Amino acid sequence: MRILLIPFFATSHIGPYIDFAVRLAAARPGAVEPTVAVTPANVAVVRSALERHGPAASGTVRIVTYPFPRVDGLAPGVENLSTAGDDAWRIDAAAIDEALSRPAQEALLRERSPDAVVSDYHFFWTSSIAAELGLPCVVFSVIAPFSGLVMRILAGAVVSGSRDVTVPGLPGPEIRIPVSELPEFLRRPAKDQGTFSPCNAAQARCLGVAYNTFAGMEQEYREANVRAKSLKRCYFVGPVSLPLPAAAAGTSESPCIRWLDSRPSCSVVYVCFGTYAAISEDQLRELALGLEATYLQSPLPSRSCGW
After folding, report:
1. Is 190 within the bounds of a domain?
2. 16 and 99 both lie in a single domain
3. Residues 40 and 171 in one domain
4. What family does this chain come from, according to its entry (predicted)?
Protein backbone atom coordinates (compact mmCIF):
# COMPACT_ATOMS: atom_id res chain seq x y z
CA MET A 1 0.00 0.00 0.00
CA ARG A 2 1.64 3.23 -1.19
CA ILE A 3 0.81 6.22 1.02
CA LEU A 4 1.85 9.75 0.05
CA LEU A 5 2.21 12.21 2.96
CA ILE A 6 2.30 15.96 2.26
CA PRO A 7 3.27 18.11 5.30
CA PHE A 8 3.09 21.89 5.61
CA PHE A 9 6.31 23.89 5.07
CA ALA A 10 7.40 23.93 8.73
CA THR A 11 9.80 21.81 10.77
CA SER A 12 7.16 21.48 13.50
CA HIS A 13 4.86 19.79 10.96
CA ILE A 14 7.44 17.81 9.00
CA GLY A 15 8.79 16.14 12.17
CA PRO A 16 5.44 14.61 13.24
CA TYR A 17 4.74 13.61 9.63
CA ILE A 18 8.01 11.66 9.57
CA ASP A 19 7.17 10.05 12.93
CA PHE A 20 3.76 9.09 11.53
CA ALA A 21 5.30 7.69 8.33
CA VAL A 22 7.73 5.55 10.34
CA ARG A 23 4.84 4.19 12.39
CA LEU A 24 2.81 3.40 9.27
CA ALA A 25 5.74 1.44 7.84
CA ALA A 26 6.31 -0.40 11.12
CA ALA A 27 2.62 -1.34 11.42
CA ARG A 28 2.80 -3.54 8.31
CA PRO A 29 6.46 -4.22 7.50
CA GLY A 30 6.92 -4.79 3.78
CA ALA A 31 3.24 -4.11 3.05
CA VAL A 32 3.06 -0.33 3.63
CA GLU A 33 5.28 2.04 1.67
CA PRO A 34 5.08 5.63 2.97
CA THR A 35 6.53 8.46 0.90
CA VAL A 36 6.91 12.02 2.25
CA ALA A 37 6.63 14.85 -0.30
CA VAL A 38 8.45 18.10 0.51
CA THR A 39 10.04 20.99 -1.35
CA PRO A 40 13.82 20.76 -2.02
CA ALA A 41 14.98 22.97 0.85
CA ASN A 42 13.03 20.81 3.31
CA VAL A 43 14.69 17.52 2.38
CA ALA A 44 17.38 18.12 5.03
CA VAL A 45 14.63 18.49 7.67
CA VAL A 46 13.14 15.14 6.62
CA ARG A 47 16.51 13.37 6.73
CA SER A 48 17.27 14.81 10.17
CA ALA A 49 13.91 13.56 11.46
CA LEU A 50 14.51 10.12 9.95
CA GLU A 51 17.92 9.88 11.63
CA ARG A 52 16.22 9.99 15.02
CA HIS A 53 14.61 6.65 14.17
CA GLY A 54 17.85 4.90 13.27
CA PRO A 55 19.27 3.59 9.97
CA ALA A 56 16.31 1.31 9.25
CA ALA A 57 13.88 4.25 8.95
CA SER A 58 15.67 5.70 5.92
CA GLY A 59 15.01 2.46 4.07
CA THR A 60 11.31 2.32 4.88
CA VAL A 61 10.28 5.97 4.30
CA ARG A 62 10.90 7.45 0.87
CA ILE A 63 11.31 11.14 -0.01
CA VAL A 64 10.05 12.89 -3.13
CA THR A 65 10.26 16.58 -3.95
CA TYR A 66 8.12 19.11 -5.75
CA PRO A 67 8.94 22.78 -6.45
CA PHE A 68 8.19 25.43 -3.85
CA PRO A 69 5.87 28.12 -5.23
CA ARG A 70 7.38 31.42 -6.33
CA VAL A 71 6.53 33.86 -3.52
CA ASP A 72 7.15 37.61 -3.70
CA GLY A 73 9.38 38.80 -0.87
CA LEU A 74 10.97 35.39 -0.14
CA ALA A 75 14.58 34.76 -1.08
CA PRO A 76 15.32 31.63 -3.13
CA GLY A 77 15.74 28.61 -0.86
CA VAL A 78 13.57 30.01 1.96
CA GLU A 79 10.88 27.33 2.05
CA ASN A 80 10.32 26.70 5.76
CA LEU A 81 8.31 28.67 8.33
CA SER A 82 11.04 28.06 10.89
CA THR A 83 13.72 29.78 8.79
CA ALA A 84 11.69 32.63 7.27
CA GLY A 85 12.01 35.01 10.23
CA ASP A 86 9.78 38.08 9.82
CA ASP A 87 8.61 36.72 6.46
CA ALA A 88 7.04 33.63 8.04
CA TRP A 89 3.59 34.99 7.22
CA ARG A 90 4.49 34.70 3.53
CA ILE A 91 5.00 30.94 3.98
CA ASP A 92 1.57 30.67 5.64
CA ALA A 93 -0.07 32.70 2.89
CA ALA A 94 1.59 30.72 0.11
CA ALA A 95 0.60 27.39 1.66
CA ILE A 96 -3.13 28.13 1.53
CA ASP A 97 -3.02 29.94 -1.81
CA GLU A 98 -4.51 27.40 -4.21
CA ALA A 99 -3.20 29.19 -7.30
CA LEU A 100 0.36 29.05 -5.94
CA SER A 101 0.63 25.68 -4.22
CA ARG A 102 -1.90 23.41 -5.91
CA PRO A 103 -0.33 22.97 -9.39
CA ALA A 104 2.90 21.32 -8.23
CA GLN A 105 1.15 19.15 -5.65
CA GLU A 106 -1.52 18.06 -8.13
CA ALA A 107 1.12 17.15 -10.72
CA LEU A 108 2.92 15.08 -8.09
CA LEU A 109 -0.26 13.29 -7.03
CA ARG A 110 -1.22 12.42 -10.58
CA GLU A 111 2.32 11.28 -11.39
CA ARG A 112 2.78 9.14 -8.26
CA SER A 113 -0.81 7.79 -8.21
CA PRO A 114 -0.59 6.48 -4.61
CA ASP A 115 -3.14 4.22 -2.94
CA ALA A 116 -3.92 6.85 -0.27
CA VAL A 117 -3.04 10.45 0.59
CA VAL A 118 -2.29 11.98 3.99
CA SER A 119 -2.33 15.77 3.71
CA ASP A 120 -1.78 18.70 6.03
CA TYR A 121 -4.56 21.08 7.06
CA HIS A 122 -3.36 23.90 4.80
CA PHE A 123 -3.64 22.02 1.51
CA PHE A 124 -7.44 21.93 1.27
CA TRP A 125 -7.49 21.08 -2.45
CA THR A 126 -5.87 17.68 -1.84
CA SER A 127 -9.20 16.07 -0.93
CA SER A 128 -10.75 17.25 -4.22
CA ILE A 129 -7.82 15.91 -6.27
CA ALA A 130 -7.93 12.61 -4.38
CA ALA A 131 -11.66 12.33 -5.03
CA GLU A 132 -11.08 12.80 -8.76
CA LEU A 133 -8.46 10.04 -8.69
CA GLY A 134 -10.62 7.75 -6.55
CA LEU A 135 -8.17 7.82 -3.63
CA PRO A 136 -8.92 8.02 0.11
CA CYS A 137 -7.60 11.23 1.66
CA VAL A 138 -6.96 11.76 5.37
CA VAL A 139 -5.89 15.01 7.01
CA PHE A 140 -3.18 14.46 9.64
CA SER A 141 -3.33 17.22 12.24
CA VAL A 142 -0.12 17.76 14.19
CA ILE A 143 -2.17 20.04 16.47
CA ALA A 144 -4.19 18.27 19.16
CA PRO A 145 -8.00 18.69 19.47
CA PHE A 146 -7.95 21.32 22.24
CA SER A 147 -5.71 23.72 20.31
CA GLY A 148 -7.57 23.09 17.06
CA LEU A 149 -10.93 23.75 18.71
CA VAL A 150 -9.74 26.98 20.34
CA MET A 151 -8.34 28.31 17.05
CA ARG A 152 -11.55 27.48 15.21
CA ILE A 153 -13.69 29.22 17.87
CA LEU A 154 -11.49 32.33 17.94
CA ALA A 155 -11.17 32.71 14.18
CA GLY A 156 -12.58 36.16 13.42
CA ALA A 157 -13.29 36.87 17.11
CA VAL A 158 -10.17 38.80 18.18
CA VAL A 159 -10.79 42.53 18.34
CA SER A 160 -7.84 44.77 17.56
CA GLY A 161 -6.53 46.40 20.73
CA SER A 162 -7.89 43.73 23.10
CA ARG A 163 -5.51 42.55 25.81
CA ASP A 164 -7.11 39.13 26.21
CA VAL A 165 -10.00 37.14 24.81
CA THR A 166 -12.47 34.64 26.30
CA VAL A 167 -12.90 31.34 24.47
CA PRO A 168 -16.68 30.78 24.40
CA GLY A 169 -18.43 27.45 24.18
CA LEU A 170 -15.71 25.26 25.68
CA PRO A 171 -16.62 22.47 28.11
CA GLY A 172 -15.34 23.03 31.63
CA PRO A 173 -14.19 26.32 33.22
CA GLU A 174 -13.89 29.58 31.32
CA ILE A 175 -10.56 30.10 29.58
CA ARG A 176 -9.10 33.53 28.82
CA ILE A 177 -6.02 33.88 26.61
CA PRO A 178 -3.79 36.97 26.22
CA VAL A 179 -4.05 38.13 22.62
CA SER A 180 -0.26 38.40 22.52
CA GLU A 181 -0.04 34.62 23.05
CA LEU A 182 -2.30 33.69 20.14
CA PRO A 183 -0.90 32.45 16.80
CA GLU A 184 -0.03 35.32 14.51
CA PHE A 185 -2.74 34.49 11.97
CA LEU A 186 -5.45 34.82 14.67
CA ARG A 187 -4.26 38.35 15.41
CA ARG A 188 -4.93 39.45 11.84
CA PRO A 189 -8.17 41.22 10.84
CA ALA A 190 -11.14 38.88 10.48
CA LYS A 191 -11.21 39.35 6.71
CA ASP A 192 -7.69 37.90 6.48
CA GLN A 193 -8.51 34.97 8.76
CA GLY A 194 -11.35 33.98 6.45
CA THR A 195 -8.83 32.51 4.04
CA PHE A 196 -8.69 29.43 6.31
CA SER A 197 -12.40 28.65 5.76
CA PRO A 198 -11.70 26.32 2.79
CA CYS A 199 -9.24 24.40 5.00
CA ASN A 200 -11.94 23.78 7.61
CA ALA A 201 -14.40 22.70 4.91
CA ALA A 202 -11.88 20.25 3.47
CA GLN A 203 -11.51 18.52 6.84
CA ALA A 204 -15.24 17.78 6.84
CA ARG A 205 -15.13 16.65 3.21
CA CYS A 206 -12.25 14.16 3.37
CA LEU A 207 -12.35 10.57 4.64
CA GLY A 208 -11.35 11.62 8.15
CA VAL A 209 -8.87 13.45 10.36
CA ALA A 210 -6.02 11.79 12.25
CA TYR A 211 -4.87 13.65 15.37
CA ASN A 212 -1.45 13.50 16.98
CA THR A 213 -2.93 12.58 20.35
CA PHE A 214 -4.23 9.42 22.00
CA ALA A 215 -7.88 8.54 22.57
CA GLY A 216 -7.78 9.05 26.35
CA MET A 217 -6.43 12.61 26.10
CA GLU A 218 -8.60 15.75 26.04
CA GLN A 219 -11.79 13.70 26.06
CA GLU A 220 -14.28 16.58 26.29
CA TYR A 221 -12.40 18.78 23.85
CA ARG A 222 -11.98 15.85 21.49
CA GLU A 223 -15.73 15.33 21.19
CA ALA A 224 -16.45 19.07 20.93
CA ASN A 225 -13.84 19.39 18.17
CA VAL A 226 -15.45 16.61 16.13
CA ARG A 227 -18.89 18.23 16.45
CA ALA A 228 -17.65 21.74 15.66
CA LYS A 229 -15.89 20.62 12.48
CA SER A 230 -18.61 18.16 11.33
CA LEU A 231 -15.96 15.51 10.79
CA LYS A 232 -16.90 12.15 9.27
CA ARG A 233 -14.50 10.20 11.46
CA CYS A 234 -11.44 10.74 13.62
CA TYR A 235 -8.35 8.70 14.38
CA PHE A 236 -6.29 9.37 17.51
CA VAL A 237 -2.86 8.03 16.64
CA GLY A 238 -0.35 9.80 18.86
CA PRO A 239 1.86 10.73 20.38
CA VAL A 240 3.61 9.64 17.19
CA SER A 241 6.97 10.81 18.57
CA LEU A 242 7.09 8.04 21.19
CA PRO A 243 9.80 5.45 20.43
CA LEU A 244 8.74 2.32 18.59
CA PRO A 245 9.14 -1.12 20.18
CA ALA A 246 12.76 -2.19 20.00
CA ALA A 247 12.12 -4.71 17.21
CA ALA A 248 10.69 -2.03 14.93
CA ALA A 249 12.74 0.97 15.97
CA GLY A 250 16.28 -0.16 15.32
CA THR A 251 17.51 2.41 17.84
CA SER A 252 17.83 2.84 21.60
CA GLU A 253 15.31 4.57 23.82
CA SER A 254 15.71 8.34 24.15
CA PRO A 255 17.12 9.89 27.38
CA CYS A 256 13.89 11.88 27.71
CA ILE A 257 11.73 8.73 27.80
CA ARG A 258 14.13 6.98 30.20
CA TRP A 259 13.90 9.93 32.60
CA LEU A 260 10.11 10.03 32.38
CA ASP A 261 9.93 6.28 33.07
CA SER A 262 11.88 6.87 36.27
CA ARG A 263 9.31 9.34 37.65
CA PRO A 264 6.29 8.37 39.78
CA SER A 265 2.94 8.14 38.01
CA CYS A 266 1.19 11.51 37.45
CA SER A 267 4.22 13.46 38.72
CA VAL A 268 5.21 15.24 35.50
CA VAL A 269 3.41 18.05 33.67
CA TYR A 270 4.36 18.46 30.01
CA VAL A 271 4.23 21.97 28.53
CA CYS A 272 4.60 22.19 24.76
CA PHE A 273 5.29 25.19 22.57
CA GLY A 274 5.28 24.58 18.86
CA THR A 275 3.84 24.97 15.37
CA TYR A 276 3.25 28.74 15.20
CA ALA A 277 5.44 29.68 18.15
CA ALA A 278 9.04 30.61 17.39
CA ILE A 279 10.59 30.41 20.87
CA SER A 280 14.32 30.74 21.46
CA GLU A 281 16.38 28.67 23.90
CA ASP A 282 16.64 31.71 26.19
CA GLN A 283 12.86 32.17 26.19
CA LEU A 284 12.30 28.49 26.96
CA ARG A 285 14.71 28.75 29.89
CA GLU A 286 12.88 31.82 31.23
CA LEU A 287 9.55 30.00 30.91
CA ALA A 288 10.95 26.98 32.76
CA LEU A 289 12.37 29.16 35.56
CA GLY A 290 9.05 30.99 35.81
CA LEU A 291 7.13 27.74 36.15
CA GLU A 292 9.58 26.54 38.76
CA ALA A 293 9.34 29.79 40.74
CA THR A 294 5.56 29.59 40.71
CA TYR A 295 5.68 26.37 42.72
CA LEU A 296 8.50 27.23 45.13
CA GLN A 297 5.97 27.86 47.91
CA SER A 298 4.10 24.65 47.16
CA PRO A 299 4.64 21.44 49.17
CA LEU A 300 4.97 19.61 45.82
CA PRO A 301 8.49 19.19 44.43
CA SER A 302 9.23 20.87 41.14
CA ARG A 303 11.87 20.61 38.46
CA SER A 304 12.35 22.48 35.19
CA CYS A 305 13.76 20.52 32.29
CA GLY A 306 14.25 21.21 28.61
CA TRP A 307 14.74 18.96 25.62
Report:
1. yes
2. yes
3. yes
4. Belongs to the UDP-glycosyltransferase family.
Total domains in the fold of the chain:
2
153 and 64 in a single domain? The answer is yes
Model confidence at 307, pLDDT cuts 50, 70, 90, reads very low
pLDDT tens for 157-173 read 655 667 888 888 888 78
Residue 220 lies inside a defined structural domain of this protein: yes
**pTM score of the predicted model:** 0.78
The percent of residues above 90 in pLDDT, for the chain, comes to 39
Q: Which domain holds residue 257?
A: 252-307
User: Which strands form 62-65's sheet, in the order they lie side by side?
Assistant: 62-65, 33-38, 2-6, 116-119, 137-141, 208-211, 234-236
